[in-house]
Amino acid sequence: MPTTLLAAQPRPLAPVLTRADDIILGKSKEIRLAVACLLAGGHLLIEDLPGLGKTTLAETLARLLGLRFARIQFTSDLLPADITGVAIFDREQSGFRFLPGPIFTQLLLADEINRATPKTQSALLEAMEEGQVTAEGETRPLPRPFFVIATQNPIHQIGTFPLPESQLDRFLMRLELGYPDQAAERRLLVSGGQRQHLDQLTPLLEASALPRLQQEVAAVHVAGPLIDYVQALIAATRQATAFQHGLSPRAGLGLLAAARAWAWLAGHDMALPDDVQAVLPAVARHRLRSLQGSGHASAEDIAGLIRSVAIP
Amino acid sequence: MSTPASEALDHQATPWLLLAALAAVLPHFAHLPLWLSAFVVLLFTWSGWLWQRDLRLPRRWLLTLVVIGGCAAVLYEFRTLFGRDAGVAVLVMLMSLKLLELKSRRDALVVVILCYFLLLTHYFYSQSIATGLWLLAALWLVTATLIRIHGGAAATVRGTLRHAAVLSVQALPLMLALFLLFPRIPGPLWGLPRDAHAGLTGLSETMTPGSIANLAQSGEIAFRVFFDGESPPPGRLYWRGPVLENFDGQTWHPRPQVFSGRGPRPQLRFESQPVSYQMTLEGHNQRWLLALDAPSVLPDDVILSSTLTANSRQPIIDRQRYRFSSVLDYRFNIEERAPVLQRNLTLPPASNPRAVELAHRWQSEGNGPEALVNKALGLFASEFFYTLQPPLLGENSIDDFLFTTRRGFCEHYAAAFVTLMRAAGVPARVVTGYQGGEKNPVDGYIVVRQSDAHAWAEVWLAERGWVRVDPTAAVSPTRIETGIATALPEGEPLPVLLRAQTDWLRPLRYRWEALNNAWNQQVLGFDRERQRDLMARFGLPDADWRNLAAALGVATAILFAISLIWAMRQQRRLDPAARLWQRALRRLTRKRIHCASWETPLALAARVAEERPELAAPVSRVVASYLLARYGRGGDLKPLRAAVARLP
What we know:
Chain A is an alpha/beta fold and about 300 residues long. Chain A has helices at about 15-25, 30-40, 55-65, 80-85, 120-130, 165-170, 180-190, 195-200, 210-220, 225-240, 250-265, 275-285, 300-310; strands at about 45, 70-75, 85-90, 95-100, 105-110, 130-135, 140, 145-150, 170-175. Chain A folds into 2 domains: about 10-215, Rossmann fold (3-Layer(aba) Sandwich); about 220-310, Magnesium chelatase subunit I, C-Terminal domain (Helicase, Ruva Protein, domain 3, Orthogonal Bundle). Chain B has 24 helices and 18 strands. In chain B, strand 3 and strand 4 (about 250-255) form a beta hairpin. In chain B, helix 8 (about 170-180) runs antiparallel to helix 20.
């Protein structure tokens, strides 16, 4: 890797990444993107077919980072209260008592989020956005850090409620895991599945360390020319004929934050155009609609976008 | 931005090329052979269809066959592959065929360059405002296509068009400099074949009954005149063309040596103040200049014939400008030589006996020459009609006209009048030219059209010399006072634009003609003389082509310097690290390492390490120091400067 050109500082997350690579085989880039998303303080959407290791990835990260972990399996009859919690009448105290829902955790895995009704989905997304839950007329803050990994099956499956664009924008990144390559798949088949190792994972990081790392990431230097580059990319999505509409300012902020996190993971204290290019597909694809064909922008669309914008 | 020309052409660029090529070819359809136009349309459709279906381009052997067939057809049609028409035909065909070979960017570039060249060829055929505007638009489109070929898929249509417009506008100063300063070559630049001017219309050298009536159907402009002061009333505007003295019973001819300028000089006595004017004469492929009767001051190089016609030394094949002075009241050859008088008394023997008899009767009644003239005019005024559609006349055309049909156009009256006079012993001859003209209120030019063509008579009277007599004025005074449109009875075929009924069209027509005139005078008429005047105004009198070339060089250098300064200021706006990086990239280009504009420095370093290991270390040093300087906190330039300096 040419990154060795620049002096790289050791990062305390390096062992986490190595260990995660042992569990989820052949998905090194996706793991790093997921961690970068978390470091940038964003939420992650993983979209893929069942059985490709979405849940394993979420659980592995939670365990290695020492985060409290909860999982909600979304179904069509799931109610908002099932997520946020309910108030029940306590006879002893003769008053209502709030029973916090599974959302009061540090890493929440929202499995198959597109199976739930829009009402339930928006309850979760609101909590994600605001970092708090309002139930029974009372606002309760969520723990810090709070990180949601939502998974979604590809939209064309029957009986699902695909997330609208406005909701998708709240996820900093969207990843597709895809099938493992041949070597990784063989290792997987030989070992008989990696889920069994999950239980043996011990936290490699204290839970309190993560906010400090997030601060370090936010301090990664972003020079004027890099902001110019991000602006040029966003402007190109708004003018290009390939997309129905361009990226939002929120997407621009997210792109910068993700690039910072990516640079930090590489051991740099400044973000480079390479970092922007590396995170751009994960940050931009779910926010752009391709004009040709239906659905979101393809990886080729993003590659074309990158090729059309000169680095200032 | 350097992508090799052999790279495959982006699929979405094809419609651009098709449109640009169509814009470049379209006006040629007006004069290409029909089969070739159809063939070109077929090729365009074929190419568009292949593009739309995303099909394979035709194979090379098939294209070769089509090229050979096409060239053979052109050869058969024109008997040559060179020259203006055949050359343009070949060019159009080859460019259309190239559209079936759009594989790489290089092919597209060939099409674009051919388009630029084809645009130029339109000026062989037309130099009108409409052509100029069309070519400007086409130029814009072709330039946009060129940008599109290089710009990649992400650029928008609007952005591309805007970019092309900006580029075209930036080229404007250079265009102006070239227009003003490029040395004008006397005579046609391209040495066009003579047949290029075969279609020019105008007065003919001879006159038969009906020849001028035919001309009157044309609304085409013969010439424009701008008077220095007040223009004389239309009734006094007689534009003198060839004088016809020989008559064979049917046709009137000028004397053969009339253009030579030899022979006796005309004796003129002027009796009023001269009027000066500038005449812009359209090409008519003849030598006469149609000065206002009678010219007093002529430009150099213009000969006044013994019959008072101004003649050029060469046939006038394209638009020319002349300055004349004329005096409207004059005496011409009070003393005329006997052979001339004799000549103008001659009639073909045994023709038109009744007319001759009538003239003899008048003469025997003891009328003097003036009385004879009045007698003939009185005859016309009584029972004759003025019409553009006179009945056909037999062998004794004057007799038929005078005694049977009594309907005719100006040439009938002039011919009959002259015949009567000659038979009665008064020397007389036919003068052809134009009469009147219409003042364009927009620019003050007097426009004289082919429909103003006219024939009148001249008689020689003792002590008065040659005197103009216009028999048409006796029949139809309005023709002379207000022009042909009001003089003709209703229902006569006249060009649409000339009809009196189309009053609502008139202001528009005036404006359009004034615009055309301005274009002709200022743009197309910017010749050597005007160029010399302009240079003189800038303190360079007597500029020859060497001075002009030098001035052009200076102007170009100034423009170049301005754009260079501008570019350098843009460059200076770059931060110093970026400038050093650009320098490093230029060095790498020399080492045949190209960096695309979107390629990151790290990616470049990785590529170099892979492809050119010998350069890996120096390039890595440059990249690392550049990234630190440009994207890091410190911005220390020294290591970058050192690393760039150490690049081999």
